[in-house]
TrEMBL record:
This is Type II secretion system protein K. It comes from Sphingobium soli. Residues 222-284 form the T2SS protein K second SAM-like domain. The gene is gspK. Residues 106-215 form the T2SS protein K first SAM-like domain. InterPro entries: GspK, GspK_central_sf, Pilin-like, T2SSK_SAM-like_1st, T2SSK_SAM-like_2nd. Gene3D superfamilies: EpsJ-like, GSPII I/J protein-like. Keywords: Cell inner membrane, Cell membrane, Membrane, Protein transport, Transmembrane, Transmembrane helix, Transport. Its main location: membrane. It is found in: Cell inner membrane.
Amino acid sequence: MPDPGNPKERGAALLTVLLLVAVMAVVASTALERVALATRMTGNGGAVDQARAFADAGTEMARLRINDLVESNPAKITLAGGWMGTPQTIPVPGGLATAQVTDGGNCFNLNSVVSGRSEALLKVRPVGVSQFQALLEALGVDARQAATAASSLADWVDSDTVPQPGGAEDETYAGMDRPYRAANRMMIDPSELRAVAGITPAIYDLVKPWICALPVTDLSPININTLLPAQAPLFAMLLPGELSVAQARQLLAQRPEDGYGSVPGFWKLPSLVGLSPAAEVAEQVKLKTGFFGVTVSVNVGGTQVVERALIDARESPAQLVRRSWGAGA
């Protein structure tokens, strides 16, 4: 310890004091930085919570509007009124919210590759498997790859652990670099498809806009009154080998402005003469929409939150099935 009374040691004492001051300055600076960071994090967390609350409110407003839409015409739902995909802007304190509603059933239901209501009794449904394969092929996927992907999807969802020809169960996934097991249950989110054997990143990116994971194992409920010409592959997949994407697109482009009035009448159209859909496929075509997709984007003070929800409108009142949140558009 330097002796301040000793002239020879005064420099050492001064150096010690300066060192202590420097250390204290660093400690104080670090503490202030952490306080500032904590303050910013608290502020950001509050902004996110507020934005999420606004998004929840927007979803609830959309649910009520959807219920009104369904009840206004119990017989059918068409594109009349411009409800589908049209952004609706909603001013909120300190920012803006934008809501969009889409037909949530005009997609391939990944859970339709099986039948059954109990998670323990999900059996492969060949028609659903064929439709997924047909959709992949319509999008340009090689026939062999499409068949493998479709069989693997069915094995992923069905309850048993016995692989189909070309499919994949636990032993396939156990041999991967990062082993895991087949889910053997219904999918909750379409992003789960990425885990299925045969689904490459390229195939997933290609099919992502066309798929959904509805909370039922029903065959994809295609509303022929709201399906857009650009979505022709979703109709062509119902009749693989019988109806081309080009023919399906032309059929949708010629749809009456007020939509079709009956499913049997639709199947009797001159452009569909000669086609022989199985009974369950014929019934797969709907005049109404049972599921709706809602996307609400909220921007409050530079903080953006996006909420995506699925609304079940098969019965009144329409019910929120699930929702998820994310950042960005």
